[in-house]
């Protein structure tokens, strides 16, 4: 679980349904998982929205 902050939000790569519908906003609690590097600075993806 992680609460997104102004800076932290930029470090999380939004993928899949959450990104397509723009459901995730700053301050939401989300579950993230480590992945292989997506880019030089991105290595996590959002897997579930816990609390909006």
Low-confidence stretches: none
Mean pLDDT: 66
Helix content estimate: 10-25%
Structural class: alpha+beta
Q: So how many helices?
A: 2
**Helix-strand pattern:** EHHEE
Strand order within the widest sheet? Answer: 1-2-3
Any idea how many domains? 1
Tell me the fraction of residues in β-strands, as a range.
25-35%
What is the alpha-carbon Rg in Å? 10 Å
**Tally of strands:** 3
Keywords:
single chain; 52 residues; alpha+beta; 3-stranded antiparallel β-sheet; 2 helices; 3 strands; 19% helix; elongated
Provide a short characterization of the protein structure.
This protein is α+β, with helices and mostly antiparallel strands. The protein is built from two helices and three strands, in the order E-H-H-E-E.
Would you write up a description of this structure?
With 52 residues, this protein is α+β, with helices and mostly antiparallel strands. The protein has one domain. Helix content is 19%, strand content 31%. The chain has helices at 6-10, 16-20; strands at 2-3, 29-34, 44-51. The chain has a 3-stranded antiparallel sheet, with no helix packed on it.
């Amino acid at each position: 679980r992680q609460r997104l902050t102004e800076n932290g939000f930029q470090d999380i790569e939004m993928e899949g349904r959450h990104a397509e519908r723009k459901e995730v906003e700053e301050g939401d609690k989300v579950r993230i998982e480590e992945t292989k590097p997506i880019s030089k600075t991105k290595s996590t993806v959002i897997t579930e929205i816990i609390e909006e």
